[in-house]
Amino acid sequence: MFSMLQPYAGLRALHKPTELVMLNTDEHVLTNPAMRMASQGGSVDWFRFWLQGYEDPDPAKAEQYKRWRELKKLQEENDNHKTGRSASN
User: Fold this and answer.
1) Secondary structure string (H, E, C) spanning 24-82
2) Rounded to a whole number, what is the distance in angstroms from the first to the last CA of the chain?
3) I want to staple 36 with a disulfide (CB 3.0 to 4.6 A). Which of 30, 50, 51, 70 is the partner?
């Protein structure tokens, strides 16, 4: 498990937008339908948010999108810092 945390910790230390989701299972290939749905559904939500700017209106997902909007702000700050622009430009 420690090896799984190293990339996450490294990205966090570099102030990169990252999120670690750990499912309560010892399986690598998910056979439990609820776990599979959580994993795959979360992946679809993540890709749609980051690649399409889409947010599912489901109130049960509001906290997830709140976290991701904060991560997106961090990414924009990183991008602005790299190009020398300020957040107000």
Assistant:
1) CCCCCCCCCHHHHHHHHHHHHHHHHHHHHCCCCCCHHHHHHHHHHHHHHHHHHHHHHHH
2) 42
3) 30
Place of tokens 């056979």: 31
Length of the chain: 89
Segments in 22-61 forming alpha helices (H) = 33-47
- State the sign of the Cα–Cα–Cα–Cα dihedral 23, 25, 28, 33: negative
pTM of the model: 0.68
Instruction: Please count the CA atoms within 13 angstroms of the CA of 3 that sit on its side-chain side.
Output: 0
**Cα diameter, the chain:** 49
10-58 confidence digits (pLDDT tens): 998 988 888 887 766 676 667 778 777 777 888 899 999 999 999 999 9
How far is 52 from 81, CA to CA, in rounded Å? 23
